[in-house]
Design brief:
Blueprint (H helix, E strand, L loop, with lengths): L6 E2 L5 E2 L4 H13 L5 H14 L12 H13 L4 H14 L5 H8 L1 H13 L8 H17 L2 H15 L6 H21 L3 H15 L1 H35 L5 E4 L4 H11 L3 H4 L3 E7 L2 H14 L1 E2 L5 E2 L12 E6 L5 E8 H9 L15 H6 L1 H12 L3 H12 L3 E5 L5 E5 L4 H8 L1 H5 L1 E6 L2 E3 L11 E5 L16 H33 L4 H4 L3 H9 L5 H10 L4 H5 L26 E3 L7 E3 L11 E6 L3 E6 L15 E2 L1 E3 L7 E10 L4 H11 L3 E9 L4 E10 L2 H12 L4 E6 L4
């Protein structure tokens, strides 16, 4: 007998259905969403058929079967009516067979808007540059902020592509699978949609590592068959104990997906046999209280394995996942892993964010639901802050998709951070000011290093000081994008401030040469015009450019000075600038950052010169340094400096000693240096092809006199052929 594929509409009339896939879709929708109107779904299907060309020449063309399969994936997630309709018809607009406005006329504004958003965020370009990938992902994020169904539709479409990936050539298959594994599967995981995430990962493994997939495909079913008797034994024991204690619930064997098995083999360094020793069971009950009761019951039956218990009910994952995980030493000494959850937790574990279909623009949600989507707001901030496409995609992969750790503030609040995060990440998660002034941290009441990796369950207290500010080294210590962005922003702002100060100083010195007062010049219309002519919208940016060394003060002042300018009026030099802790006095400039150059390592006693570097203050060099001599530096950037030592200070200097290659020579020279009461911080010896040796010493000295004394002492060693001070060239 031919099966009856007719359905009754809300009006009571009968509608014939010819396609088995459509029948399957409608049956699934009837079970998962009985309020849905099948007449609208049938209308969308007929619209798809009427609009689809018959030709099969274009392998990327609209496929009725593909559209039905995408709709089926969404139906399994209990999708609403509009989403199913969009799944059926949206690709018509992407291929140009229908416009979004035409779809809107047929199915309403909500469907039309969804179609437009999905069409512009799901176009597959298989030879993507990183810029294209980042731009597509940015669009998806912005659309998600308005209606989360956009990303769910994209995920369903990508899963459908992965199911039919064999239609593409090998290179394209690898590109699609790699992108799916790096972006779409983790995104599904972040949204808590295990049904999509797990299948995507397995399909990607099949493409990217076919030999591994084949071995798993052969071994896993056989392993499950061999262990079925043991699983039945454990299941019966648990069921009997639950019945005895009056606890309702269902128990079933939980099959691990191929990709998760592969990942555990890689991360733990296990063999297939070792990994398959783990039996996994899931228990589903009705209340949170009974979840904990079952946990206690299992721990009373078998000994729990330390470190293998996780309470995701008390501390849910950011993707809304809740469950109790524990591993025990079961019968016959075999490990058994249990997951214990309620029916509602299980539904969310499978469908994730799809359980919140009404989370869209214009519909209010509870505070708890808003908290669950806080990560989306963070993602929106990133896409606005990070201009580099590569940096944006790396931040997405790092912060959004990596495993998380859950740590506590001293008051008991929970903070979710990326795995590997440090106390600095924690500090910036509280507030930028807390991070910027962080001096140390206590983890579980113990002082720890700022590079300490935090673990789930840690209680973290941040120590701060108003005098503390971020340094470039901090960028190596943090894991989260938020912390990295805040540190980079602070450092950039500090550099801008220093450059602005330097620019003012340089301009002021040049202005004084011409008898001008800079404060008056900066208020004049001429300087504003000069800034505009030089391509600066703001005067401050032009001054910054001077501080950075991108623009000279002469270039600016030449534009505002009359052509026949009088001879510069001699002016009295400004008062000597502030004496710095580095023992340097700078003439003609106020308080400013000072650092010693590494190219020549000047020490007290050397003739020195200073020049203003780009955004880094005044750099101190030896007078004969190759980096400042011979016109290598603009004269206007040179400043007069001198030693002004209030207390002795240790300086690092490197020397090179050429010797004959004889045993004990390094010890002899080291002893001679030590006899002069000078410390050696590093030493290295290398033998040349001509049989001679080069000894490199890094010494800690107080002044040039120390250095001269050491060089003379070393030159008296019999085996020494040459000794000299080293500079970088």
């Amino acid at each position: 007998m031919k099966p009856d594929y007719s359905l009754k509409t809300q009006g009571g009339s009968s509608i014939p259905i010819e396609k088995d896939p459509l029948k399957s879709l409608l049956d699934l929708l009837a079970r998962n969403n009985p309020e849905l109107d099948p007449a609208r779904i049938l209308k969308a299907f007929e619209y798809l058929k009427e609009s689809t060309p018959v030709t099969k020449e274009d392998k990327h063309a609209v496929s009725i079967e593909d559209a039905l399969e995408t709709a089926q994936i969404l139906a399994e997630l209990h999708a609403d009516e509009e989403t199913i309709i969009v799944a059926l018809v949206e690709n018509l607009t992407a291929q140009g067979y229908r416009t979004a406005d035409q779809v809107r006329e047929q199915f309403g504004d909500e469907v039309g808007s969804l179609v437009k958003n999905v069409a512009r965020t799901s176009q597959i370009r298989f030879k993507k540059r990183i810029e294209e990938q980042a731009e597509n992902f940015r669009k998806m994020i912005l659309s998600m902020a308005q209606d989360l169904r956009v990303v769910l539709l994209n995920l369903a479409k990508r899963l459908q592509v992965m199911r039919r990936i064999g239609r593409f050539d090998e290179t394209t298959q690898n590109e699609i699978a790699q992108e799916t594994l790096e972006i779409y599967a983790p995104l599904a995981n972040r949204l808590g949609i295990a049904l999509i995430k797990s299948e995507m990962e397995d399909l990607c493994l099949k493409v990217l590592h076919p030999s591994v997939y084949k071995e798993l495909e052969e071994r896993v079913p056989q392993d499950r068959k061999e262990r079925s008797a043991y699983i039945d034994k454990v299941t019966d024991m648990v069921k009997k104990e639950m019945a005895a204690q009056g606890i309702p619930g269902e128990i079933d064997g939980r099959h691990k997906h191929f990709y998760s098995i592969y990942q555990k083999i890689l991360k733990r360094g296990l063999s297939f046999d070792d990994l398959f020793d783990l039996i996994a069971l899931r228990i589903i009950t009705d209340t949170n209280t009974r979840c904990y009761a079952i946990l206690g019951m299992i721990h009373s039956m078998w000994k729990p394995i330390p470190g293998r218990f996780k309470d995701y009910i008390g501390v849910p994952k950011s993707n809304m996942y809740q469950s109790l995980h524990t591993t025990v030493m079961g019968p016959d000494g075999q490990n058994v892993e249990f997951q214990i959850r309620t029916q509602e937790m299980h539904r969310i574990a499978e469908a994730g964010i799809a359980a919140h279909w009404k989370y869209k623009e214009g519909i209010k949600t509870s505070i708890s639901t808003e908290h669950k989507f806080a990560w989306l707001r963070q993602l929106l901030e990133w896409q606005q802050e990070l201009k580099s496409p590569r940096e944006f995609m790396e931040s997405v992969k790092t912060d959004l998709f990596e495993e998380s750790v859950y740590v506590f503030t001293p008051t008991g609040d929970i903070k979710e951070l990326s795995s590997g995060s440090t106390p600095l990440d924690f500090a910036y998660s509280i507030h930028s000011d807390v991070g910027n002034h962080c001096t140390g941290a206590k983890v579980n009441n113990r002082i720890v290093s700022l590079k300490t990796a935090l673990k789930t369950g840690d209680t973290v207290e941040i120590l701060t000081s108003k005098n503390q500010t971020p340094s470039k080294d901090w960028l190596k210590l943090v894991k989260t994008t938020k912390a990295r962005n805040r540190i980079s922003h602070f450092l950039t702002q500090e550099e801008q401030n220093r450059s602005l100060s330097l620019g003012h100083e340089i301009l002021e010195r040049e202005a004084r040469k011409h008898g001008l007062v800079l404060s008056r010049v900066l208020k004049s219309a001429e300087i504003q015009k000069a800034a505009s002519d030089l391509g600066f919208a703001q005067l401050e940016k032009m001054i910054n450019a001077v501080g950075f060394g991108k623009l000279s003060a002469k270039q600016i002042l030449n534009r505002i000075l009359p052509e026949a300018a009088p001879e510069p009026i001699p002016v009295k030099p400004r008062k000597t600038g502030k004496i710095h802790i580095d023992g340097i006095k700078i003439h003609g400039i106020g308080d400013i950052l000072v650092h010693f150059s590494k190219c020549c390592n000047p020490v007290p006693g050397d003739e020195i010169i200073g020049f203003i570097t780009r955004g880094k203050g005044v750099s101190i060099h030896k007078m004969d340094c190759f980096n400042v001599g011979g016109g290598a530096v603009h004269s206007e950037r040179i400043v007069e400096v001198e030693w002004d030592l209030k207390e002795e200070r240790i300086h690092q200097v490197r020397i090179s000693v050429l010797t004959t290659n004889r045993p004990g020579i390094l010890a002899n020279i080291s002893a001679r240096i030590s006899s002069e009461n000078v410390n050696i911080s590093a030493a290295d010896i290398r033998t040349r092809k001509d049989g001679r040796s080069i000894c490199i010493f890094e010494l800690e000295i107080r002044n040039r006199q120390d250095l001269d004394r050491i060089l003379h002492a070393i030159s008296q060693v019999k085996e020494v052929l040459e000794v000299k001070r080293m500079t970088e060239s």
